[in-house]
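Design review, sub-item: ligand-bound model
Attendees: FS, YL, KQ
YL presented the inputs for the zinc ion complex:
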Amino acid sequence: MDSWPVPSGRVHLRIDAGCLVCWGGFGFYLLARGEISYQELVGFIAGYVFSMLFLSPDLDLSRSRAFRRWGILRWLWIPYASLFRHRGLSHRLLLGPFSRVLYLTAIVGMIGFVLSLLGLRIAPSVPPWRILAAVGIGLYLPNLSHILADRISSALGGRG
Ligand SMILES: [Zn+2]
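KQ shared the predicted structure:
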């Protein structure tokens, strides 16, 4: 267990969810102004929620909530957790989320490769770049609030 004031998984989830309310509100504002489309807003929120729950920087810790949330698939993250020291590269502002997206992409790619060997071909249709960008921003922002919360708590005297 982390000692106070290092944010626990639950605290992180609350902070990230609180930020989502703000970002989502801003998204609706942009939607109302016609700056973004409905699909882009949905893509952003879907990316954000997925990242908040399943791509947390704390996947570098096999006893974290983020790790356990993967349920029967959590073994997929064992190599990641053993590769990265807790709060090391996985908690870097750009390299951290990049490492997890790359890791997940590699896994999905391998599954696709195995399926293709079995004769099952999946041809994913790539959505327009604006929706991809919205999903990407959604994937990124929970990392930002997580890492900032960790850094602020460390600066205030927390361990780690
Ligand atoms: Zn963390």
